[in-house]
Amino acid sequence: MILRAKYAILNSRTIIEDGAVVLCGSKIQEVGRYTEIRDPCSIKVIDLGSAVIMPGLINTHTHLELTHHKNLVNHYARFTDWLFQIVTKSNCDDHRQVNQAISDGIQLSLAGGATTIGNIQSSEKGLETLKYSQIRKIVFLETLGLSPHVFFDESERINKRLKSLRNDDLFTIAVTPHAPYSTSAKLYQYCADIARLNRLHLSTHIAETEAEIEFLQHGTGEFTELLNMLGISLDVWDPPEVTPIIYLRQQGVLDLQPLLAHCNYLTDKDIDILSKSGSSVAFCPRSHKYFHHTNHPIMRLISAGVNVSIGTDSLASNWSLSMLDELKFLANNYEELSSETLISLLTINGTKSLKLKNIGKLEKDWQADLIAVGISDDGRPVFDQVCDETSENLMTIVAGTICYKNENLEI
């Protein structure tokens, strides 16, 4: 199969006119100008017209289990009030609801241009649905618990799940201790140990709110109130009196070059530590706006050489799961980010964040993970048209398989 379009974005630096991609099985066989690579044999050609073929977008942090929580969770001024709603509502969800949420989340992700996701999975519910879906995914098995008596149960649960699951071409297992305000140091260290032993990727929510910083430094504030409301004892909690990033370093987590979700509040020292550790950051721009956080340190992170990628978070804190929407938001609200940087943030940087290979570019022998974005072709720079509010994803292909097709696209 050959895909042809008015333009093709091969990577952050290369845009060509009359672009074409030849697909063979799950890989890209050839890429370039259509007139130069056209095969005289009768290979099916899909001409997408006024469109841009580009690498599939990589969503490095999402929670598909919460897809059905859209508009069900009230947005309070305090993050912990929002979190309390999530916890109480999620505890009531049955297998059917979670299965449907994950199935819907996958379809919304594909429609929004994501070919790969880094999904946080808190339970066994819906795991089979996720595993056998067509989207490429890194599934971070979540664990949490502050109390000593929870440690044994959680460690056993994670071990059992790791033994029961096998990686395949589109499915990779990883681990994620939830956050410092919900997960004990012992459980963090345990996750780091099993990740190291089993060569697993590790992610965690970190430095997401100022309340988290207060909890770690003083043991006071909103999170103390939340934990009390949830009946979680803090009798054994001894505040480490450090920033969240230094706390992770103390637990040996940064030695694994983890993927750190959010990182909304960082000191210069934190950023220096992250740069030296080789850790990656998953910035969730519209979720960041949803909670009215202050300016994200994305430019300071990039300047320090930290690998930054992009996530949507969940529909409980975002308006869509579309990575194309995320790209448009960034282009319209972060003028300091160049077009080259924006492309990298949503493609090749995501590859590095999830520790994958051969995705994130349109390149010979790389995986055939790509999308086609319909544009107006009005003479403006190509990338400006991709980021225009009128552009739309026409097609999503993962490992050579068409997983989403816009209803208006005739092929």
Structural class: alpha/beta
The CATH superfamily of the largest domain is identified as Metal-dependent hydrolases
Quaternary structure state of the chains depicted = single chain
Shape from CA axes? globular
What is the mean predicted local confidence, pLDDT?
Answer: 94
Ends apart, CA distance between termini: 12 Å
Rounded Rg: 21 Å
CATH architectural arrangement of the largest domain? Alpha-Beta Barrel
Please give the count of helices.
16
State the share of residues found in helices, binned by percent. Answer: 25-40%
CATH topology of the largest domain: the name is TIM Barrel
- What portion of the residues fall into strands of 2 or more residues? 15-25%
Give the tally of structural domains.
2
Number of strands: 16
Uncertain spans? none
CATH class of the largest domain: Alpha Beta
Query: Main sheet, how many strands, which sense, barrel?
Result: 8 strands, mixed
